[in-house]
Amino acid sequence: MPENDNQPTNTSSQDTGQVPPALPSNLPSAPPQQVSPALAQSAPQSRSGILELLILVAFLLIAFLVLLAFKSSNKGDLSSDIDIIRQQNAALQTELSAERQARGMPALDTENASHIAERIQKDTSLLVQTLTGLEAALAKKEGAVSNTTQALNASQQLNSTLSIQVKNLETQMAQLRLSAQDAPQLKTQLTQTLSQLEIERGKLLEFSRRPSLEELTDVKKALEEELNRSLTLSTENTELRQQLEANQSQLATQNPATLELLRAELDELRPENNDLKRELQRLRAEIDKATLFVDSSDNLSPKAAALYAGLQQLEGLTPDKLEGAYTRIGDTLNAQIIHQVKFSQGESHVTLTDVETIKSRLASTEPDSFFLVVGYASTTGDASSNQTLSAKRATRSASVVNGLKAESQNVRAVYLGQTTRFSTDNTAENQLCEIWKIN
Q: Are residues 101 and 2 in contact, defined by beta-carbon separation less than 8 angstroms?
């Protein structure tokens, strides 16, 4: 018989014992690490085999005792008794083998009693190990089932969370579909907003170019000084003129030389007086620029903006067509030109003659009139420089109007651009400002 208890019992031993073996010879030698369902189902059959073996062992012990009794009482009959017991044992073995075969188990081999007992002990130990392995495998299975249950619960929670997220996404998708329907309108609003933003940026740039409060204060102070000086000189000139007129007849008869001297002195004062008036005009225009000049028609009233847009479309027209276009614009917007201020090359000063003309034209305007001063430039020279000069001319003309208009009236100045509409031969004719009256 093998000495390794971990190997299955060899059921092919040829010992002379007559007791059948208790277990099949093909049982595993060690407890399996994983128990199959078939082995788990055969556990009741193994317990039944152990019970049968115990019964068989008890029967053999009884038979052994009977045999000893027979030996002591009747040695002569011992041989016959042993033969009878052997026959009975063979019959029992045959019956047990048939029952085992009916249950799908191998038939029993003949072994002696000591070998059977030893094999029963080993098989019992093997069964204990097998049961221990089954219990460990069952505990492991229960742990795996517990882990699987936990994983299943986690999966169910995840599925629930994902279902909620899917519903939220479906809701967001529906909202996006609704938003997509409003996309054209939103795009239009965005375009309008961007355009307005550009306008505001232009205003901000214009504001940044304007003089600071300190600069305006200095200009105002200088203006007041110049005004006071101009008033003083004007007063002196007036007094001299009055004195000259009062004494002119007397001087003409009494002292012609003195009269000529006074006239010469007056002539010397006139250029200086004119220079002071021009400087005064410049200073006023610098102060008024922040409120009078606009660099975009978006900052004009609706009628003034419409007039500006209409004038922009007239470039390249013949004089006759230009006159007709001016008439249509005037009739449509109830507007008319009250004066054209023309300038010499590089000049932006409004002459005294133009000032007097503007003053007389404004005297006959309505109290609610709006004045738009439109500046043009010739096509000679640099376009950027022409724009700067023409804007300065428009601002000065508007400043003159602002100083002469009624308090209820308003005025703005704009630059329209370089042009040849007034003359294609003499470019100087295009260096002008139009003063439009709108009601």
A: no
User: What is the pTM (predicted TM-score) of this model?
Assistant: 0.46
Indicate the range of 14-23, 125-134, 256-265 predicted with least confidence. Answer: 14-23
Q: Give the CB-side neighbour count of residue 333, counting CA atoms within 13 A.
A: 27
Q: For the stretch 61-74, what's the b/e string if a residue is b when 16 or more beta carbons lie within 10 angstroms of its beta carbon?
A: eebeeeeeebeeee
Closest CA to 23 of 132, 128, 100, 114: 100
353 in Cβ contact with 394 (< 8 Å): no
Q: Which residue segment(s) compose the domain that 59 sits in?
A: 15-181
**Which is nearest to 24 in space by CA: 4, 57, 48?**
48
CA distance 74 to 328: 162
84 and 114 together in one domain = yes
Last residue of one domain, picked from the residues 181, 204, 237: 181
C-alpha–C-alpha distance, residues 131 and 119, integer Å = 18
Task: Let me know whether 275 and 301 are in one domain.
Answer: no
Q: For the CA atoms of 205, 211, 213, 215, what is the dihedral angle to 10 degrees?
A: 160
Tally of domains in the chain: 3
Q: Return phi, psi of residue 393, to 5°.
A: -60, -45
242/144 same-domain check: no
Q: Are residues 315 and 375 in the same domain?
A: yes
Q: Which residues pair with 377 in a beta bridge?
A: 418
Predicted local confidence at residue 328, as pLDDT? 94
pLDDT in tens, 183-200: 777 677 777 777 777 776
